[in-house]
Specification:
Elements: H1 3-16, H2 20-34, H3 43-57, H4 64-76
Length: 77
């Protein structure tokens, strides 16, 4: 599929979706590449980042190898 066909396919899919959340997410995603303004997180996102930082500071995270093992278990169960 060339770029022109890809654009037409995306336009078609966007025109036929009824999913408001998907449209908002697509809009935000495209804006992140085309706007020069910094991304502004909402309160929920800020709280999630704060929680993740706290977990990281406490050493509550997996390294790549541990994460790969967990994912492999989930996929195969």
């Amino acid at each position: 599929m060339n770029i022109a066909e890809l654009k037409q396919d995306l336009i078609h899919r966007i025109n036929h979706t009824q999913d408001d959340e998907l449209l908002m997410a697509l809009s935000d995603f495209i804006k992140s590449f085309t706007d020069n303004e910094p991304y502004v997180m909402n309160e929920e996102q800020l709280q999630a980042v704060k929680e993740a930082r706290t977990q990281y500071d406490k050493g509550e995270f997996l390294n790549d190898e541990e994460a790969d093992k967990d994912i492999e278990k989930w996929v195969n169960d």
